[in-house]
Amino acid sequence: MSVTINLTHPRSNRIRILESLIFLLLFGLLWIQPVFAQTKSISGKVIDLDTGQPVLGVNIFVKGTTNGTSSGEGGQYTLSGVSTGNILTFSILGYASQEITVGAQQTINVSLQSSTNSIEEMVVVGYGRQKKRNLTGSVVSVGSEEIDKTALQDPISILQGRAAGVQVTSNSGAPGGEMTIRVRGNSSLNSGNNPLFVVDGIPIESNSISSLNGSENFGLNPLADLNPTDIASIEVLKDAASTAIYGSRAANGVVMITTKRGAAGKPEVTMNVTTGLSELSRKLSVLNATQYRQLILDSYTNLGTTEEPYFTIIDSLNPMNNGDVDWQEELMRTAAQYKVDFAVRGGNQNTKYAWSSSYLDQDGVILNSNYKRITSRLNVDFNISDKLTVGQSVSFTNGTNNRINAGGVGNLSVIRELLVRPPIMSMYLPDGSLNGYSLGRRNPVGIALYATHLNKSNRLIGSQYVEYAILPELKFRSNLNFDYISMKEDEFMPSILDYREGYNTGAVRSSGNLTWGNESYFSYNKTVDQVHNFGALLGLSFQKWRFDRTGLDGMFFPSDDIRTLNAAGVISNQGINVASEHAMLSYFGRFSYDYQSKYLAEFNLRADGSSRFGRDQRFGYFPSASVGWRFSEESGLDGLGFLDDGKLRFSAGMTGNEAIGDYTSQGEFSLGSNYLDFSGAAPTVMPNAGLTWETTTQYNAGLDMAFLANRLSLTVDLYLKNTKDLLYNVPIPNTTGFNYITQNIGTIQNRGAEFLVTSKNLVGKFGWNSNLNISLNRNKVTSLPENLLTNGYIQNGNFHILQEGLPIGVFYGWEFDGVYARDEDNVNGVTHGALGPVFEGGDPIWRDLNGDNIINQDDRQIIGYAEPKFFGGISNDFSYKNFSLNVFFQFSYGNEIYSEINHQRNSVVRYNNLSTDALSRWREQGDITNFPKPVRDDPKQSDSRVQSRWVEDGSYIKLKNVNLRYSFAPDLVKRIGLYRLDAFVTASNLITWTKYTGFDPDVNSYSGLRVGVDEGSYPQSRTFIFGLNIGL
Amino acid sequence: MKKISIRVLGCALLLAFGSCSDSLLDKDPISSFSANGFYKSASDAQAGVYGIYNSVQSTFRLNFAYWGEGRADAVQTNHAGDPFMLKQNGLTSIMTSSRWDNLYVMISRANYAIKYIPTVFEGDDSSLRNQLLGQSRALRALAYFYAVRVWGDVPLILEPYESINQELFVSVTNQETILNQIEEDLIFASANCAASYGGERNRVLITKGAADALLTQLYMWRKDYAKAIESADRVVGNSLYSLVSMSNWNDIFSAGLSNESIFEVGYNEVQTNALRVLYAIGSDSDYFPSESFRNSFEDGDLRKTKIYDITQAQPRKIWKFFGEGFNDESADPSANNIVLVRLADIMLLKAEAHANLNQADEALTLLNTIRRRAGLDALDAQSATALYGDLVSAILHERSIELCFEGHRWFDLVRTGRAIQVMGPINGLSDVRNLVWPLHEDAINRNPSLSQNEFYR
């Protein structure tokens, strides 16, 4: 018996592919040689038209096939299997693509026209790609070249200042900390304002699922699970024409992240190694022990008491309060970080792969905070036949975040404590043990060192697709996608930080968040008579979400050393076991037409059904339409000869927001309302069967122009967004037993303008490119239901109000007009409240708006605006020989910050330490100052009012990033066995110019509607990074 | 190759279209219930009732002192906010204690329970059904009793809110109508609650005895002395309750669950209250004993050193709830139970009822039982009058010492018509319309059918 294997038999091919797949999955490194016969081989060199430098990594394909390669060292390439008459396409991000018909020649050399940031690029749009030249919507794109200059570790920070219309603020400077991202302003009151994040076509989870956030008001950044080095481009879809295809989740914009994929050709092996240091970019001044003691004594005297607090006494009985500690010095450090990543990308005409992994170990500037991340990714594409392509993208991320309690209020907050903790509190007691707890305050150094606040997550994001060309023009594609986050959180507060012997507490949470679904669509593209280009798309999708969380709280662990919950003496809460589900079903379609790229039109429609809404309200319909006119092609406009390109765009459409609780419309009867050890249940959410989407109608007008041989280009967009049926938790009488019902009420408007200018100032030997973007957004609440208003507004948290005609994020409180120098300066005898005490010398002068000589609720007014007048970034790239330099500034102008942290730093509540501003405080009759007298338990509540004293100008310009790079000459590099070697230095947050007196004006301690409040979050750090990019 | 292509394509199409039906969008809550879907079994009914107690914890964790002591003469304060405003009689519509939110959460949860408990039991003779209904109605009565005593006329809501179409903006009901409803609920509870649940549950849940005790308080508020004596007799005769000895007196509060306790709100290390912040932090508590209170003790009263630290020149530390010698600077929450009703309270109320009906002997017997425990001599009608003016005053004085800081003093002053006489010299209280609290501005803002209480307009 003999076994013959026929290599052309489909079955054996199948086995071969299966083997390859397994091999690739296991090792990711295998490179499969082409197995098909060759007709002819073409080779050549690709260079930059302006500089004459070789261009590496250019994708070279035989048009209409998957036969392709990419240019390697020196811009050289070889492509086999080419026949005469074939068309070769040369494309790479940042250059205009070229097509060349193959004749008899064996060598084809190509010069590519650089198009960095110009209108020639391809951009990713919903369910496809499009030439930026033919866009009729508004899309902003950041490419991998930009990303590589930043040395940032998550995709959201990269967008800060680099994408017009996208406002990014830091909730926390902690490694892996959460960011706030807004595309064209806030368009929702209660429900989410986050854009939809789509990675390689998969909508992923972008909200933090962490639950043990200590006293912080925010979690971790789920987008930090993506390694920026893997990213090929980030596109932000802004107007309705671009986003309507994502329907009910698109009202806040869509961020499309595309990862690098393999191209046919020799494998490209790259390795990047970076290492760096971070430090606190600004230290704030506080009182020392002597100054502090005097201040506390003053605050007692000012209350009129003759008592002296025992803790200000310096004697041996009071050792815990005899210190003089600089808490910032004790808690802050110079932090190290290290990252290595490794990638292999390549393939042949049938199999393409991109394999990468990375390891990051990043210390935070606060003692003991640390983030470690391992990422691994495999993207593969297989051509099974001429018509069938299948592929898979899968990425795995393991993150370990050793957090510290940075934000928030109370004696668990490290950041606040490092500023307001009395300097007299000694670090150690005479017996050498830590002074863990005194005067109701926990030692922040103790918290950082000995408390546990650990977050460990594993995340798998993947998608599989099949694409089948039914006809050359008609394709069917189906994606199966999933995103699974598994998170374990541990918290422990040891007894050495408590006053009670043996009192320690611990908690554990385990969470799983699964999103999965399918998207299937037909796409059709046809050109008729070489001038009429038609495109169509028709598809459907479903998506499901499930969230599970289990946990335990415990206390009285016999030892601080064993922190797992099995050791807890008392399980104080075992009722944490929750799950929720959510599903969507959608239909979508697109039709586009253009005439010679001169007249362009596009229509989109999506129908979305969501389980979150009442049965009768489940489906929403989201249409959009857009037109474009390339006037530079018009023969009648010859006078515009200086124009290389000019296009006008208009779009209009509707998008939605479904970001409310999974079961809000059904109401909720929750378990866990326990009484002692008896399990209890209680109604917690009042039902509203009529709930439906928020709908945003957006209009966009855009202009794209390029001049001077495409060296100067300009994009301007104007937009108007009206959002109606806002999902809002409407306060209802508490006599119902409920606080609110979620209802669709009110409207919000955002209008704005975005400008993007790119310029090649110098080309040739010395290169200089500039890029400027500026965004303006004006937000306005246009209507609120009458019955919700109190005195014409809705109080929105402690600091803000919502009022018709005003933006979200106005601060509302009392106007501080200085300090009474003498008792008799209060000539009208103004009192605190109708019956309260009269203001005296040293008390603040509150503006008495209604002139009734009574300072009460009626004397509040708007004291500040959190919305910036404009914001943006300026990037300059210089190149000379082997050197390149990127200098990037980011700015925000006209926004105000309510500095709650400065309030804490300037009031004697809880025996806080104060800023050195307190040295100029009022001390005696006649003192002229702006700093009121400190009064312990002040009956006039001078410190606790929301007041203009804490509103500061938050404008800033920041030298955000400087990147200096040296690329070693190819021949030199070749001698040591490499094909590429770059060395670079990056400095982040180098200098900030601002009047703001807190740590950093780039701050947003709270997410949601509580914008522009600095509650004292983890400060941004100044970072210096050195790195090598190695091509093997 | 083609075959594979078609198979793969077929699978993809199947996946895409096979799973797409509208039922995909039907999602019921998994770890909670939809608002109308909870009450299905007897254990659900039990959980629903414990849910009411859960809101009792939040209602009284701080307010039992603000409402019951803050405006009266035994406490003094240095603290801004509610303590200062209440003590100075400068009540405002933004004070914490002007909020009734928690009381109406109690009422809402009770209304759900009262509506749905009968649906999970067959017939109406199940004892579990009846005692659960009894507890629910007693807790609703407790909430309304506080509401009426604090604000006077308030909205009377007896049905749960389950739809946006129900009347949300309810105006106030005359307090006499509400007091009648409270009486009806408590009589039902007295008839249906279990006499004993066993162990600690007899103190932290509403028993028949607790319902009788609350009825006694209600009748005393309404000056219905005969009925007060009737219900108090049932309490005094209840074998669950007996006075503890003087040496264990602090344990009633610090350890809880004593034989003297009739109903106390249970707390623990996790479900905490504000007792420590209110009374106990040495340097910085909300309240410390007022000078007039400190001077009102008779010589030899054994309770004095148990109530506060008498060694301090300006006494700050109230030891009653934490035990003699308690010394703590922490502002952390406390785990002690809060005793709302205990035997000494009911005995003194009964004594007061007898005194008002000129039954001096019965009154004196009860009064002297309490006095003797405190190491004081027994009083007779003459000495009571000599010391305190009349017998009722003597009993009220005894209440002010025995029950000090437990949240009774202000209500005692109001129901006996002495509030203005006692507090006028201290803080200028002079108008009977001022005896109630203002409605919180938030309540008025949320409900156009409400108007501010007259004195505060």
UniProtKB/TrEMBL annotation, chain A:
Keyword Secreted belongs to the record: no
Keyword list, A-Z: Cell outer membrane, Membrane, Receptor, Transmembrane, Transmembrane beta strand, Transport
Recorded superkingdom: Bacteria
Record bears the keyword Zinc: no
Bilayer topology: Multi-pass membrane protein
PROSITE patterns: TONB_DEPENDENT_REC_3 (PS52016)
GO CC terms: cell outer membrane
Main localization of the protein described in the UniProt heading: membrane
Domain TonB-dependent receptor plug as annotated: residue spans: 131-254
Compartments where found: Cell outer membrane
Family per record: Belongs to the TonB-dependent receptor family.
Protein name: TonB-dependent receptor
Lineage: Bacteria, Pseudomonadati, Bacteroidota, Sphingobacteriia, Sphingobacteriales
UniProtKB/TrEMBL annotation, chain B:
Domain RagB/SusD, chain residue ranges per copy: 316-456
Residue intervals of the SusD-like N-terminal domain: 97-220
Pfam family, one: SusD_RagB
Any single Gene Ontology cellular-component annotation: cell outer membrane
Matching InterPro entries: SusD-like_N, SusD_RagB_dom, TPR-like_helical_dom_sf
Secretion signal span: 1-21
Protein keywords: Cell outer membrane, Membrane, Signal
Subcellular location as annotated: Cell outer membrane
Family: Belongs to the SusD family.
Name assigned to this protein: RagB/SusD family nutrient uptake outer membrane protein
